[in-house]
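Below is our example:
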Amino acid sequence: MAGKRRLAHSTRGFMRRVQMAHQDSIFIITEGKKSDRWLYDGTLSRSAKIGAVGVRFYPIESIAPGGAAGKEAVLKVFGRLRTAKKLTTQNSTGKKLSIFCVDADHDHITARKLRSPHLIYTKLPDAEAHILEECDLLEVVANVASMPKSEARQTLAAFGSWQEDLARGWREWMILCCTGKILGLRNCPAPGTPPKRTIGRMGPVRADAISDLRASINAQLTTPDLIRLWTIHEKRVTQRVDRIMARGEYHFLLKGKWCLKQLKNLTESHGPVVTGHDLTLSEDSFLSAAKAHCTFATEWHQAVRSKVEDLI
């Protein structure tokens, strides 16, 4: 049993499985266990060329040493295979490809994306954001809350500009986290980390939370050079975030996981006013309902298919 566990959480074991594979030729390693594999499977299964060679999916926990999870674990294993020149291998049945898929988070703001034909980023912050991008919110709210569409329409109207409100309420938090990432500061939340102290559920970040974060950051800016670098990068990050907001592209700032939580909160808050009865909902129910609308036909889905097809 111990030997099996070591093989399951072993990059070397994964490389052996790839090298010995007969039926499948493409091995997809994903950051998340739930939405990620579902999203990439749906995306790639629309390609006859990819389907003809076979695809196998691995969550990173199954191959990273110690069962490590998350984006950093994916990038670490990717780097190890790239250094070993094992991203593409060959056996008696043909070419074998290892492809790594990670959430973009706010890497388009921090300019931290790596480049490789074997590395795929989401275009939006995470897999859930892509799933929500395609859904009809009216249908989703009606489905999850078991409402007639007329009531769902009234409930949605009460949400107002909910994505803009969330993005603006968390704007300064996102800017500080992204700038801290660029400078590699300790004890600074990673970009994509939701604030723990907000005004109400998923409301604007509380002023004391921002003050505490700035105090933690300032304590680490111990030299004139660090202060200068912080000022430069905070200005650049602010400009990038504000350009995205000016275009109304709030979905490029908001993780889908945040949006699912906010949809649940808003529907539970406003739905009873319309329906006359309390609602107790789950984020997973919104995600499941949104998945039913995925066509896997957006520009990003097509780009992912093309990138993988080019490697075959």
